[in-house]
Design goal:
171 residues, alpha/beta, Rossmann fold, six-stranded parallel β-sheet, two-stranded antiparallel sheet, 7 helices, 8 strands, disordered N terminus
């Protein structure tokens, strides 16, 4: 019985983000410095943009990205979306990208940290989903930042995931 408790407790920890913020723009230079983060891998949908598959940037993201660039913080998009869609979006915001990244598999998180010329512990993934962004970050050894300012999705699969995510975060 104790083994089962430890196993379940350990499993829930792998889904727990290191940091939880409301919005990507809440990531400040001071926050990054305090946590030894020198580069960011960022999801697109519901992280940089206002909704899933909607290319409209959230309020303040354009200025936030400029501030990061101006202060030497490199940002790379890490997305499960097809490369064609991400290439177009990345070009509009001036970022490098890794599309069709197969999150939560750790390979492209590691590739992203290498592309930033950083150690994994100096890199953070910023995303809105526990089962892709955060789990992949934990598996790859990068720091994890969950942003929760989420536009509700219509698809049933998203609704189910969000319900499970809420239970994990409440523990």
């Amino acid at each position: 019985m104790y083994f089962m408790y430890v196993f379940v407790k350990g499993m829930s920890l792998i889904f727990k983000p290191k940091f939880i913020l409301n919005n990507i723009t809440d990531i400040t230079l001071e926050f990054l410095k305090e946590n030894s983060i020198k580069g960011l891998l960022v999801d697109v949908d519901n992280t940089l943009t206002i909704a899933h598959a909607n290319p409209t940037l959230k309020n303040g993201v354009e200025v936030w990205l400029e501030n990061m660039k101006d202060n030497g913080i490199e940002v790379i998009i890490l997305s499960n979306a097809k490369k064609e869609r991400i290439k177009h979006f990345a070009g509009k915001v001036g970022l490098d990208f890794i599309g069709l990244s197969l999150k939560p598999l750790p390979f492209n998180y590691i590739k992203g940290a290498k592309a930033l010329n950083l150690k994994r512990k100096e890199t953070a993934i910023v995303g809105d989903q526990i089962f892709t962004d955060i789990l992949g970050g934990k598996l790859s050894g990068v720091q994890t930042i969950l942003v929760t300012d989420i536009t509700p999705e219509d698809k049933l699969s998203f609704k189910i995931r969000r319900k499970i995510e809420k239970k994990i975060l409440s523990r």
